[in-house]
Amino acid sequence: xxxxxxxxxxxxxxxxxxxxxxxxxxxxxxxxxxxxxxxxxxxxxxxxxxxxxxxxxxxxxxxxxxxxxxxxxxxxxxxxxxxxxxxxxxxxxxxxxxxxxxx
Length: 103
Ligand code: HEC
Hints:
By secondary structure, this protein is mostly helical. The chain contains six helices and no strands.
């Protein structure tokens, strides 16, 4: 009995954490193609305006914190206007989508 409930709670835990770890890739793709690709490239493979790093090399955490720092104004950049319009969920979704662009 005890072992069953332990196994069940482990399954439940991993299901919850996988939901949190992954954004909605489809939604992220929409955001990316509409609001990011123009500067960062369709595959996130360009240096935006010759100033940014190549963001398809970034992991999710690094993308999300980069976006948060620009939304809050901690880092100033010519792409900040569009970053100000992103919700936390948008940031997660677009960060997950960018992971699919890694070569
Ligand atoms: C108008 C052009 C433009 C658009 C549109 C744009 N960016 Fe940027 N982005 C830049 C520039 C220029 C930089 C480098 C300057 C800076 O640090 O903000 C940058 C920096 C970044 C960085 C940090 C890269 C580094 O060098 O550390 C990330 C991550 C990023 N952008 C993601 C996005 C995402 C995701 C979107 C779409 C929601 C987006 N950007 C839209 C121009 C743009």
